[in-house]
Amino acid sequence: MSTCRSSKGASRLTVVGLGVLVIVAAALPSPAQLPTYGVGRPPTADEVRARDRTIPHDGKGLPPGSGTAALGKPIYAERCASCHGVEGREPKYDRLVGGRETLATDTPVLTVGSFWPYAPTLWSYISRAQPIDEPGSLTVDQAYAVTAYLLHLNGIIGEHDVMDAKTLPLVRMPNRDGFVPDPRPDVGKAAKARKP
Ligand code: HEC
After folding, report:
1. pLDDT tens digits for 19-66?
2. Could you tell me if residue 18 is inside a domain?
């Protein structure tokens, strides 16, 4: 009985919480009413397209262009090495190279080579988010080249293998099959399946 009572209490609380949310949301001005300060303008559709480099794991939408590790090496040295180290092993920020044998140990080292399951999402992330102090500043070819360089440093592709929209999705990342479905009942697929 007591479980029953407490769960009812919880749902009443949720209702009250929702009510408060609705009131707060109603009090906020809609974006259209916000002051504009007379600067800036909405981006054009072309501008949004040029910056939209979110690529799914299967590589759909990868743009035309290409790069190799050999081409990526000097770009990496100039734009990335200051934070990630010349060989990508600097632990101060994220380590990008090595760690392959560590995932099942007490001190797993998550890197591009040890952890990332797909290469196209690596291109997508680098292209949008790195270098972290100047995100989005790499050209399409530069992003292919530094992606290739990181894959090469991790021993996954050769120095002169050309990475482009066709080849990048074919790269077999070492940890591709290392992921398991989340077994917790309240998250992931299991939870979705239970919902009406
Ligand atoms: C100013 C320092 C800085 C520079 C320069 C920089 N990065 Fe990073 N990078 C970071 C930091 C900090 C993170 C962690 C970001 C986070 O956790 O959200 C990171 C994360 C990453 C990751 C994700 C690693 C992982 O396993 O999750 C990749 C890949 C990466 N950087 C690649 C690059 C590349 C390629 C360049 C050069 C084009 C670059 N970075 C330049 C600071 C930097």
Report:
1. 444 444 555 556 667 777 888 888 899 888 777 889 999 999 999 999
2. no
DSSP 168: G
| First-last CA distance in the chain | 26
From the CA atom positions of the chain, what is the Rg in Å?
23
Say how many Å lie between the CA of residue 131 and the centre of ligand 1: 6
Q: Position of tokens 């040029």?
A: 50
Domain count, the chain: 1
* Residues constituting the chain: 196
Distance in Å, CA 119 to ligand 1 centroid: 15
Angle at alpha carbon of residue 98, lines to 94 and 102, rounded to 5°: 95
Is 110's C-beta closer than 6 angstroms to any atom of ligand 1? yes
The CATH number for 154's domain is 1.10.760.10
Ligand 1 centroid from CA 130, angstroms: 6
Residue nearest to atom 17 of ligand 1 (CA): 94
Residue 14 lies in a domain: no
Q: Which domain, by its residues, includes 117? A: 57-178
Would you say the CB of residue 10 lies under 6 angstroms from ligand 1?
A: no
Is there a contact between 73 and 81 (Cβ–Cβ < 8 Å)? no
For residue 145, is it within any domain? yes
Residue 141 lies in a domain: yes
pTM: 0.79
Among candidate residues 148, 165, 167, the one with its CA nearest the CA of residue 71: 148
